[in-house]
Amino acid sequence: MGSFSAVDAIEPGGPTRCVAAIAAAALLVGCAAGLPMRHPEPGASLPGLVAGASGFREGVVAVANPYAAEAGARILGQGGNAVDAAVAIAYALNVVEPQSAGIGGGGFMMVHLAASAQTFAIDSREKAPAGATADQFVGKSFGNASTSGLAVGVPGMVRGTALAVERWGRLPLAASLEPAIALAGDGFAATPRYVAASCNARARHYPEVEAFFCPGGTARVQVGETVTNEPLAETLRTIARDGPDAFYRGDIAMGILEGQKRVRPIAPPAQPLDASYTGRMTLADLQTYTADLRAPVVGTYRGYTIKAMSPPSSGGLTVLNMLGMLERFPLGDASQGFGFGSTRTLHVMTEAMRLAFADRAVWMGDTGFVDLPTRGLIDPRYTALRSALIDPDTRMATAVAGDPRPYDDGPIGGRLDPTEVFAGPGGSTTHFSVVDKWGNMVSYTNTIEASHGAGMFAGTYPAGCAAVSCFRSFGFLLNNELTDFNFTPQAKDDVSGFNPGANDVVPGKRPRSSMVPTMIFDSSGRPLIAYGSPGGATIINSVLNVTLNLIDHGMTLQDAIDAPRLSVTSAAGTVGFDDGAPGGRFQGFAPAALNGLRDLGHPVSGNSPSAIGSVQAVVVEPRTGKQFGGADSRREGTVIGLPRSRGGR
Ligand code: GLU
Q1: Catalytic choice (343, 429, 447, 483)
Q2: Assuming Cys at both sites, which of 230, 321, 370, 609 could form a disulfide with 356, CB separation 3.0 to 4.6 Å?
């Protein structure tokens, strides 16, 4: 096994180019810059991120959809801060990217307040209802379970966003809802992604949803045609007028409870599903739902401080665990056989992923319910032990979970009391990032789990009429987040006592997530970048890839996003990769590098890769305060900077 020390590497950046605008909307402004640059000093301000771009000073949004980006920019322009803008974006996305996220689901909103230099996260992850049981998924197929009410968790977005604006916003919640209400009520021109998703399996599973997205098996709208969702506009008007309680009580709540009673087998004609597939959420579950405030998990990598989402997400712990293992390898140094995209680099990344995901499977879940060795998992002594299992020249035969408990010197990333935080202005799934003119930053990943969630709208049928035309829709899809729990309980089957069942179903518990809103800080503690991604378990690896691209490979922000990504999400899983963002300067990993991985014995997937993740990021250059954004053309990534007259991002 080689031993390596960190070295500076020189990596060429790409030519200046603009990210492709979305044809249907043409709202994109700004242009990314990429210039040759040197690997930064450890912990310095990543100068290549912004080289050559003129930047902004009054805020930047980076969002996976142009209309939602516009919503955020508008709120910034009205004097809202990053929190207000993020909330506006989240609601707008429910309208224009309904398959990914919305009020029927939940997410994690990481906030950095410039005034107090505090970083925290608002956890609006869905919870299991009180009637949930550890064995509720046992013996059920994923397909049937995930399209039944049983998968629906108690939604958190409305509580989470309300908490955010009440404590840290400058505008009332109703103001941040306005752009979404206008989009739903007045309509928007369908984007290619909206149309492409319209006939996904879950958009056709229940007749009311099929009638909205894909009547008769054809997308209801073509690109550029107007989409309206009046039921959703009305739901959002109700929340704007009556506040978040209107969602958790009254008519909307009844619509959620009725919605989650739907049960339908995935491939009719098939055996009808029994009542054990019916959702178990009650009004009490909705009324008692709370969003929580959490400290991020924190680690360092080559002198930078990285703060990332804590449990119930596995994301932050897994990213920091991997970075801890990888730090001894000179990933940026081609002269030592590493460098971006080399077999060696891809190999050690794969090995770190295999080891970290083995730990994730055993040790990560909602720490409110299981005592887990969170700090141990990212302790440098533990990650050094795990790293020692990585041989840069040979594939590990099996990667198994380790035992971080001896290194666990106390919890990290736990719940915070809101009073501890400074109050004052300050595919499926979707990630966006915002910075405002005061320097506050938000990194927010939001989801309803699968594309179109459980495939069912909140809504009710009146007594005596089961025709789709009688359905009273509330216009939003319900999540299927509870399928992120273990299908088979692990704690009770583990006679050794090693496996704590970290992610077994428990009433009130949140299913383990992979969502990892992340921020990097320089060695002086100044925030540099906020970023994250959708993509299920691959989220974790998208964040790892981008982090290495920035810190080890010295890429510009846009190149770091555009570059091809590698991902394996279990110890024995297939190694996936993508070709990079359309329109970027990359044409995938070199075939020889991938064949080198195969020669080492890695099960690398075939040659038709599908996109991994969709990273949206904002950057602040700490010496000048200039702000920049980067978005991912794997989806409809859009950056808008203020003031709009400025060209460069
Ligand atoms: N439910 C997933 C999670 O929380 C996100 C789903 C996705 O990104 O597609 O990890």
Answers
A1: 429
A2: 321
Distance CA 516, CA 513 (A): 8
Summarised one tens digit per residue, pLDDT across range 228-287 is 999 999 999 999 999 999 999 999 999 999 999 999 998 877 788 999 999 999 999 999
Q: Which of 257-271, 312-326, 557-571 has the least mean pLDDT?
A: 257-271
The pLDDT, as a whole number, for residue 37 is: 28
Encode 112-128: b = buried (16+ Cβ within 10 Å), e = exposed: bbbeeeebbbbbbbbbb
Strands 188-189 and 226-227, bridge-based pairing: antiparallel
Instruction: Map 255-287 to HEC letters.
Output: HHHHHCCCCCCCCCCCCCCCHHHCCCCCHHHHH
Residues in the chain: 649
Q: How far, in Å, are 613, 619, 634 from residue 346 at the CA level?
A: 18, 27, 21
Please work out whether the CB of residue 445 comes within 6 Å of at least one atom of ligand 1.
Answer: no
Dig out the tokens for 566 from the structure. 């590698």
Pick from 122, 76, 71: which is nearest to 294 by CA? 122
| Gap from CA of 157 to ligand 1 centroid (Å) | 14
Query: Is residue 429 annotated as part of the catalytic site, yes or no?
Result: yes
Q: What angle do CA 211, 213, 215 make, to 5 degrees?
A: 45
Cβ of 514 less than 6 Å from ligand 1: yes
| Atom of ligand 1 lying closest to residue 537 CA | 10
The residue written with tokens 């030519």 in the block is 15
Q: Which of 345, 361, 365 is nearest to 563 (CA)?
A: 345
Written as six digits, the tokens of 359 are: 């730990």
Distance CA(472)–CA(208), nearest Å, equals 9
Of ligand 1's atoms, which has the minimum distance to the CA of residue 314? 10
d(CA 303, CA 543): 18
The tokens describing 596, both together, are 């080198």
Nearest to 116 by CA among 439, 436, 411, 433: 439
503 ligand 1 Cβ < 6 A:
no
Decide whether any atom of ligand 1 lies within 6 Å of the 45 Cβ: no
CA–CA separation, 477 and 101 (whole Å): 8
Classify residue 17 as exposed, middle or buried by CB count within 10 Å of its CB (0-12, 13-18, 19+). Answer: middle
- 429 touches 101 (CB < 8 A): yes
Atom 2 of ligand 1, nearest CA residue: 536
Cα–Cα–Cα angle for 168, 170, 173, rounded to 5 degrees = 85
Q: Which residues pair with 301 in a beta bridge?
A: 304
Residue with tokens 């550029």, as numbered in its chain: 224
Q: Is 389 exposed, middle or buried (0-12, 13-18, 19+ CB in 10 A)?
A: middle
Residue pair 58/78 in contact by the 8 Å Cβ criterion: no
Q: Is 484 in the pocket of ligand 1 (CB under 6 A)?
A: yes
The encoded tokens of residue 488 equal 């088979």
User: Using one digit for the tens of pLDDT, what is the confidence trace for 162-208?
Assistant: 999 999 999 999 999 999 999 999 999 999 999 999 999 999 999 99
Q: What is the pTM of this model?
A: 0.92
The rounded Cα 320 to chain-centroid distance in angstroms is 16
